[in-house]
């Protein structure tokens, strides 16, 4: 691994002007269906109205110069050396450049990119998928490479796996690219078939509560869960089956094999099968406008993530337990990989402020840490727009 020191932003680095290419790359929520994407299951994410803004300009060199306002960090990457580095965010940039160079065009040219926006990092809103897909889309437009959406999604996923070391599934990238206004994405992660469900939640709204913790375990335990699922599948197939994914298995089949599956692996597999069923029930509930059932499924999802899949933490559990006592909250659960980040809550809009006040106080008293509430709306996926005048 080579190490490129982060440099000061150079004087001749561009400041965005009207006419520049601007990409809006949103974060995502996931209503239900956690840790199912890499298990070939169903998920129900959506893009949100919090996004990164990436502004691009060609620079006619063989270097990519990128400044991130959120990280207050500048980096210069030579297209002739796309080996991984030791620092975090640069690896994402190098990763997507390497993918594009390999899969699409070895003739890639240099550009400048200015990144700003209000997408919290490490909160489980997929800021990394937004960054990777935003870069891929921007480079695609800038150099007219003809990359389609599916390739953007798969290249961004691969860059995260190979350069950031998380063996992630495809949900985040898919939601960032394919999101629609008021549209939940019912995605079958095995086939990548998707259905957009236009749902109305009024008078309820989605509220994220950011714990402001990211436990160290998050990456290593994420990869471990994936391995545990593969291990469980192998044991199940060793009994004469030929399943491709855990989510292809019925609960009866699993329980019939319980004597040969170690107890912890059985819990993981059971969670996957039951969560997959919950997603399908949630889709039906959404189509029928049955928000009560949807909320109950969200609580059940959290219990599974806490007790069977074991990716929750004390901070997330407290928030969900608090929400569950409040009749103005229909459902709540941890969201994303786990071990910190946000909970997602479906809260009556007239009681939102009171709920935030009470839960923030309880969180502060218990953990001596503040909670960040983030109200979100379901919004379009990645878009190419002209630069906005911010003066
Ligand atoms: C992270 C990963 C996704 C998915 C979720 C858990 O966000 O990037 O692929 O596995 O965790 O559902």
Keywords for this entry:
six-stranded mixed β-sheet; alpha+beta; 391 residues; single chain; binds alpha-D-galactopyranose; four-stranded antiparallel β-sheet; globular
What does this structure look like?
It is built from ten helices and 13 strands. The chain has helices at 88-103, 127-143, 149-164, 171-178, 217-238, 251-256, 263-288, 291-307, 314-324, 352-367; strands at 21-30, 42-43, 45-58, 63-68, 73-78, 111-117, 183-188, 193-198, 204-214, 329-334, 340-348, 372-376, 383-386. The strands form three sheets. The protein has a six-stranded mixed β-sheet, covered by helices on one side. Helix 9 (314-324) runs antiparallel to helix 10 (352-367). The longest helix has 26 residues, at 263-288. It starts with 20 loop residues before the first strand and ends in a 5-residue tail after the last strand. The model has no long low-confidence stretch (mean pLDDT 94). It binds alpha-D-galactopyranose.
């Amino acid at each position: 691994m080579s190490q490129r020191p982060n440099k000061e932003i150079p004087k001749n680095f561009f400041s965005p002007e009207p006419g520049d290419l601007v990409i809006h790359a949103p974060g995502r929520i996931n209503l239900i269906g956690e840790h199912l994407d890499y298990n070939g299951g169903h998920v129900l994410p959506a893009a949100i109205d919090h996004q990164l803004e990436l502004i691009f300009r060609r620079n006619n060199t063989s270097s990519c110069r990128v400044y991130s306002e959120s990280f207050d960090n500048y980096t210069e990457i030579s297209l002739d050396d796309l080996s991984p580095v030791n620092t975090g965010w640069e690896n994402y940039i190098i990763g997507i450049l390497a993918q594009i160079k390999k899969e699409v065009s070895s003739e890639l040219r240099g550009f400048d990119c200015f990144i700003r926006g209000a997408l919290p990092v490490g909160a489980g809103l997929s800021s990394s998928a937004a960054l990777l897909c935003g870069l891929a889309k921007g480079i695609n437009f800038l150099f007219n490479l003809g990359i389609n959406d599916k390739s953007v999604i798969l290249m961004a996923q691969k860059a995260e796996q190979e350069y950031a070391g998380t063996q992630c599934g495809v949900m985040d990238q898919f939601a960032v690219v394919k999101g629609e206004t008021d549209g939940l994405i019912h995605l079958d992660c095995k086939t990548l078939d998707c259905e957009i469900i236009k749902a109305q939640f009024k008078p309820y709204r989605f509220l994220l509560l950011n714990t402001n913790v990211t436990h160290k375990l998050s990456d290593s335990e994420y990869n471990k869960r994936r391995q545990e699922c593969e291990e469980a599948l192998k044991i199940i197939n060793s009994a004469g089956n030929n399943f491709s994914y855990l989510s292809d298995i019925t609960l009866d089949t699993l329980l019939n094999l319980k004597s040969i599956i170690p107890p912890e692996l059985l819990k993981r597999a059971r969670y996957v099968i039951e969560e997959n069923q919950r997603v399908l029930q949630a889709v039906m509930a959404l189509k029928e406008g049955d928000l009560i059932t949807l909320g109950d499924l969200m609580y059940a999802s959290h219990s599974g993530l806490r007790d069977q899949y074991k990716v929750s933490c004390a901070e997330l559990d407290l928030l969900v337990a608090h929400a569950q006592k409040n009749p103005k909250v229909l459902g709540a659960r941890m969201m994303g990989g786990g071990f910190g980040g946000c909970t997602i809550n479906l809260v009556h809009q007239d009681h939102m402020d009171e709920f935030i006040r009470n839960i923030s106080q309880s969180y502060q008293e218990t953990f001596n840490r503040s909670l960040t509430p983030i109200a979100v709306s379901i919004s379009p996926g990645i878009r190419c727009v002209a630069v906005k005048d911010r003066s």
